[in-house]
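Quiz preparation item.
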């Protein structure tokens, strides 16, 4: 089975054109927001650990704790195994976050193998870790594995922007949104990126109503 990815801005542009052919309402969004940034990252243990550290924290608080962990050399599986809970707590990690990160270490994910796994298999592997939900796993697939067909239906911004795009009376549930957008496949990552950008415009009240 071929794994579809988006590696370059040119490929994203091609995916957006194909998406607009399926869902013409995206044409007006694309005209307003332009080509979104792919926001790719290198992935791996450190990327997931950083995502877990930042859950339910402000950007500033997450950055502060991460900086302390980096300075204390506590960002690799080996270093986490060697550290006591008190050492991790001293860097700002709560008891819950420490449990999550130790679960990530214990699962010993083969990150290279994730590259060739179908989306749902990769998500299943990631969500087996305590503290990694489907949203975090989908963010990893979208931004680290560069997958082309990921729509984060649990994401608040995606739901709000989709409500505006589709002219819905109320914010859709994840199940409703999945059903409403199933036909956008296999270009749902392009849809996610456009909807996040559109949400930014809606928040600033500069978007033109569709």
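Solution:
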């Amino acid at each position: 089975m071929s794994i579809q990815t988006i590696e370059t801005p040119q490929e994203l542009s091609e995916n957006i054109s194909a998406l607009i052919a399926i869902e013409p309402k995206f044409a007006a969004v694309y005209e307003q927001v332009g080509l979104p940034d792919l926001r790719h990252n290198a992935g791996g243990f450190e990327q997931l650990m950083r995502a877990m550290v930042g859950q339910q924290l402000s950007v500033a608080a997450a950055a502060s704790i991460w900086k302390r962990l980096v300075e204390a050399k506590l960002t690799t599986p080996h270093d986490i195994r060697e550290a006591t809970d008190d050492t991790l707590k001293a860097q700002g990690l709560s008891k819950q976050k420490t449990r999550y990160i130790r679960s990530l270490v214990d699962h010993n994910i083969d990150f290279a193998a994730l590259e060739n796994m179908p989306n749902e298999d990769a998500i299943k592997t990631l969500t087996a870790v305590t503290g990694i939900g489907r949203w975090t796993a989908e963010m990893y697939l979208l931004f680290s594995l560069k997958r082309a067909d990921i729509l984060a239906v649990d994401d608040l911004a995606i739901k709000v922007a989709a409500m505006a795009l589709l002219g819905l009376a109320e914010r859709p549930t994840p199940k409703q949104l999945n059903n409403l957008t199933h036909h956008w496949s296999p270009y749902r990552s392009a849809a996610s990126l456009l909807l996040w950008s559109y949400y930014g415009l809606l928040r600033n009240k500069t978007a033109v109503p569709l």
